[in-house]
Amino acid sequence: MIKVLGKVLESIVSILGGEKRRKKDLRVISAADIRVGMKVRIPLNWFRHPFWKSTVYIRNQEDVERILALELPFLLEVVDRKDTQPGKDAGESERPEDDKEAMTAEDDVAGEVHETDRSLSASASSVPEKKAFSAKVHHLKVQQCQKAYHEKLVEIKKLIQGVLSFSEETVKEANRTIEVMVSSLLADPEAVVFLINAKKKADVIFHHALNTCMLALLLGRDAGLTGESLCHLGVGVLFHDIGKLRIPKSILYKEKPLTPAEKQFYRLHPDYGVEIASRVSGISPEATMIIRDHHELLDGTGYPRGLTEKEINTLVRITTIVNLYDNYCNPRNPERAFTPHAALAHMYRKLSQKLDRLLLERFIRLMGVFPPGTLVELNTGDVGVVIARAHWSPKHVSVMLYDPNVPSSKAPIVSIGESPEVKIIRSLRPADIPPEVYQYLSPSFRVSYMLDTWTK
Ligand SMILES: [Fe+2]
């Protein structure tokens, strides 16, 4: 698949470099700036928008409305380099009927945002221009993912609160939500894992539910689970900590270590969760099993029942890994947080007897040695934070760099896989860098993820 994509991208570059494409360029514009007569490229897969191609000649106000309804933070305007005024690209020779042939290969793949980014890079005329253009698109992509993440968070909160009040309709809704997430995931094998700047400090339980759900589905798919199993996994992980909502907040959010009595109370949350699930129909036995067993460990040291390896199902093993990972990265006391890199290293070195080794190795391959959210130092001397990773390619890692001359919203971004001379040499702890650099790179209060193709 990747080889095929590579060939198609090569053909795009060749088309862009050919006679017919030489006079064309692409410019990032706000969706609010579109008007009749423009030709724009929609940064979504073709099945995610209502047009028959991803490059659209806007013929009338109805087309404008259909594009605005997609709620895209940006589009790409196809412009002629001789005349860069918006809207001047609508001459007869630019009508879609005239260039169907030339656009075919391009349109097949250029709809996807990260792919568009690469074709943009190919058309940029100089290295600095290319980098600035890429950074701008990347920041816009992150904004798009953040919007989708926060919309999903609102949805998840409604579902969890609905189940707490034993609403059967909510369980049906939760099953439908997970089905949509699973089908999107199965349809987009090359989705990119993005770091989300989650600023809202409330609703920690809902952030945890969404984050673990997404990571569990990613790992489950990689482990070869089918659609039905993935749905059971998704619903189970979505509700795995629902019993925590019966634990007093003084224990749940306590930053100091829990007393033995508080720990004992806290450890009741899987049983509370099962009790809640049993009072509302529609939650599958597999999902209930995940709620009950998600703190069980293969060496028998887990709780509440101290199960051993043979008694712990694959769905539970997946949940345990992503649950621990998210808890290490986002603990009750933020000062004790592991960086994503350190969390994986710790799990691999210290917990390999307790976790499913093969699944853990799969998870590390998916997230990378330097998962999004990891502070890193490059061989150029730059310091940055990993903000995105294509799990299908270990080389495709995007790093946002510290640059005191620009605000972090415009910080330079380097794509490690596309710049062979640039390498990550080590991960950094927050204590390794000055506070102002840490603040610039990590304004988020927690490490959260979103897949870019789940934005629509
Ligand atoms: Fe839990």
UniProtKB/TrEMBL annotation:
Gene3D superfamilies xref list: Hypothetical protein af1432 (1.10.3210.10)
Entry-linked SUPFAM superfamilies: HD-domain/PDEase-like
Biased amino acid composition, Basic and acidic residues: 83-103
Domain HD-GYP: 183-379
Region ranges (Disordered): 83-125
Superkingdom in the source lineage: Bacteria
Cited PANTHER family: CYCLIC DI-GMP PHOSPHODIESTERASE PA4108 (PTHR43155:SF2), CYCLIC DI-GMP PHOSPHODIESTERASE PA4108-RELATED (PTHR43155)
Protein name: HD-GYP domain, c-di-GMP phosphodiesterase class II (Or its inactivated variant)
